[in-house]
Amino acid sequence: MGTLSLDRLVVRPLSRLGTQFRPLRRLGTRFIDILLDIWALDRERRALQVLDDRGLQDIGISRADIEGELAKPFWRR
Hints:
- The chain is mainly α.
- The protein has a domain at 29-77.
- The chain has helices spanning 6-20, 22-49, 53-59, 63-71.
- The radius of gyration is 25 Å and the shape is rod-shaped.
């Protein structure tokens, strides 16, 4: 009977596990990126909502444009 080594029991299986789940890790990272983008877009829309008419005129946006942006669902750009 051969001897059991820690390398054969633990290290090798864990290294294979990492490569098997690489696509899943990429998917998770992409999902987090999408959530952060949605959150940033929502913050930008809310920031536009609090601008006064003079501020809106400075950036060339009307109140109707902002209302249209706020009416969009959170996932739409």
